[in-house]
Design goal:
It holds the Pfam family BTB_2. One of its GO terms (biological process) is protein homooligomerization. It comes from Papilio xuthus. This is BTB/POZ domain-containing adapter for CUL3-mediated RhoA degradation protein 3. This protein is an alpha/beta fold and about 290 residues long. The chain has two domains: about 110 residues, Potassium Channel Kv1.1, Chain A; about 130 residues, Glutaredoxin (3-Layer(aba) Sandwich), CATH 3.40.30. Helix content is about 40%, strand content about 20%. A five-stranded mixed sheet has the order 1-4-5-2-3. Strand 2 and strand 3 form a beta hairpin. Helix 4 packs antiparallel against helix 5. The termini are far apart. About 5% of the residues have low confidence.
Length: about 290
């Protein structure tokens, strides 16, 4: 504008000046503006030209939205930062422009905290390939529980309870992932090409148990797919996998003591066939005792 002109401004700390920051008007002292080492001190200590209009307002070509917060920080040495992430980012931009290092650092710390607080407590990766699954399992120090769920893998019609049991498996997976989110890595596979509903349990990068929840049954000379919900066994395997939290490997005596089915050497778990043989042996023994 024709009335605008540049001048060097220098006065006593108690002298008041009028500021027009992006159309927002402020009234403060030179002492406040020159209180710390920043761009404003340079502007109002006579070392840098400032632009004024015909009414004596000093023009600063910045958004005035957060300039009041900057003045309060210069006055008191501290200020309440905005609660929203976006406004804190806006204040950070202004603090950087005016070279106010302490306020810049305070904004950065607040933003980092907001990002940490915004992180979900429980995260369940949805894997997109077998390679990604292996990378997740091998790169974590936590035990891993994987649920493969793919209703479309079915070749036959489902039994009447299958859909309900399928949902129960998903609900249990969600509950377990919330309960043990800090101790176990839960991953979900919805693109598996063979199984319909299958739980896998990994310790130190190796599979140690598997619970398959589907089977083929016959009814009226037709095959049907049956989805089961072996809740107790899934809980058992999930609790057992916690033994693999230690990097030194699980205590084999502890595995056998805490497993209702018993453990068979190394990291492998008891198979269904071995469980059936054990059960048949107990039945034969009971029958012989009754006959005697």
């Amino acid at each position: 504008m024709s009335g605008d002109h540049k001048t060097f401004l220098k006065g006593s700390p108690s002298q008041y000046v009028k500021l027009n920051v992006g159309g927002t008007l402020f009234y403060t002292t030179i002492g406040t503006l020159t209180k710390s080492d920043n761009m404003l001190r340079t502007m109002f200590s006579g070392r840098m030209e400032v632009l004024t209009d015909s009414d004596g307002w000093i023009l600063i070509d910045r958004c005035g939205k957060h300039f009041g917060t900057i003045l309060n920080y210069l006055r008191d040495g501290s200020v309440a930062l905005p609660e929203s992430f976006r406004e804190t980012m806006e204040l950070l931009a202004e603090a950087k422009y005016f070279l106010i290092e302490e306020l810049t650092e305070a904004c950065l710390q607040a933003l980092n905290k907001k990002e940490r607080d915004a992180e979900p407590i429980c995260r369940v990766p949805l894997i997109t390939s077998q390679r990604e699954e292996q990378l997740l399992i091998m790169s974590t120090s936590k035990p891993v529980v994987k649920l493969l769920i793919n209703r479309h893998n079915n070749k036959y019609s489902y039994t009447s309870t299958s859909d309900d049991n399928l949902l129960k498996n998903i609900e249990l997976f969600d509950k377990l992932s919330l309960r043990f989110s800090g101790r176990v890595l839960f991953i979900k596979d919805v693109i598996g090409s063979t199984e319909i509903c299958c739980w896998s349990f990994f310790g130190h990068g190796k599979k140690c148990a598997e619970v398959c929840c589907t089977s083929i049954v016959y009814a009226t000379d037709k095959k049907h797919t049956k989805v089961e919900f072996p809740e107790a066994r899934i809980y058992e395997e999930t609790l057992g996998i916690l033994l693999y939290e230690s990097r030194n490997g699980p205590d084999q005596d502890l595995i056998q003591a805490t497993s209702s089915r018993g453990a068979v050497g190394g990291l492998s778990c008891t198979s269904d066939e071995e469980e059936e043989r054990s059960g048949l042996a107990r039945l034969r023994s009971n029958k012989q005792n009754n006959q005697s």
